[in-house]
Design brief:
Helix content: 25-40%
Order of helices and strands: EHHEEEHEHEE
Mean pLDDT: 94
CATH class: Alpha Beta
Number of helices: 4
Bound molecules: coenzyme A
CATH superfamily: Gcn5-related N-acetyltransferase (GNAT)
Radius of gyration: 15 Å
Structural class: alpha+beta
Strand content: 25-35%
Distance between the termini: 20 Å
Shape: globular
CATH architecture: 3-Layer(aba) Sandwich
Low-confidence stretches: none
Largest sheet: 7 strands, mixed
Strand order of the largest sheet: 1-2-3-4-5-7-6
């Protein structure tokens, strides 16, 4: 069956949490946090379903000081569904819907560790398709994480977005 990209509801929180738990690259937050994100930040989140099963999700928000930016907080696709373009499609759907709703997102932001090649390619592909330059700047350093030994998370900033249609639409 064709994958379905849709806006999440509060009830998706548990399935989204399961997707995160299947991705060791991500810091897992509580089930409560994902329910809240799916419900209260639904316009800046999407889930991807195949055969009625949630196989991917993205959650983000508009930073209060940059309300035309989408800060992508977490994006994940279950290993078995990777490489199908789902992550890119979910993010593009948020951008496209923001324009349709008259509150356009014109920049994408995300922090991505240097070694996360799939994630870097995801954002490079989005920049290409959305016709926007991509810049990387320091943001969260390794020191910010203290004794956790977490690698630095530089900020990727894409924009201004000029190609409103992205892939497919
Ligand atoms: C990053 C991630 C969300 C991409 O999901 P996806 O649905 O496979 O993404 P897409 O199919 O849209 O592919 C995005 C790009 O990554 C590339 N890619 C996919 N898997 C890859 C891998 N294992 N290694 C390198 N590149 C990879 C794709 O070829 C594509 O690049 P292209 O547009 O140049 O062809 C997924 O790999 C994932 O869930 N990783 C674990 C969680 C994570 O690290 N999230 C990001 C940090 S918040």
């Amino acid at each position: 069956m064709e994958p379905l990209i849709r806006i999440p509801t509060l009830a998706d929180g548990a399935a989204v949490h399961e997707v995160v738990l299947a991705c060791p690259e991500l810091d897992a937050n509580s089930r409560y946090a994902y329910a809240l994100l799916c419900h209260e930040f639904d316009q800046t989140a999407r889930v991807a379903e195949i055969d009625g099963v949630v196989v991917g999700f993205v959650c983000g928000f508009r930073p209060p000081r940059r309300p035309r930016s989408l800060f992508v907080w977490q994006v994940a696709t279950l290993p078995a569904a990777r490489g199908l373009g789902l992550a890119g499609c979910m993010i593009e759907a948020i951008v496209a819907d923001s324009r349709a709703n008259g509150q356009p997102i014109d920049h994408l932001e995300a922090t991505v560790a240097e070694h996360n090649l799939a994630s870097r390619r995801l954002f490079a592909g989005l920049a290409r398709r959305l016709g926007a330059p991509l810049a990387v700047e320091p943001y969260i350093t390794a020191e910010t994480f203290g004794a956790m030994k977490h690698p630095a998370e530089p900020l990727i900033r894409i924009g201004p977005i000029t190609n409103q249609r992205g892939r497919g639409g």
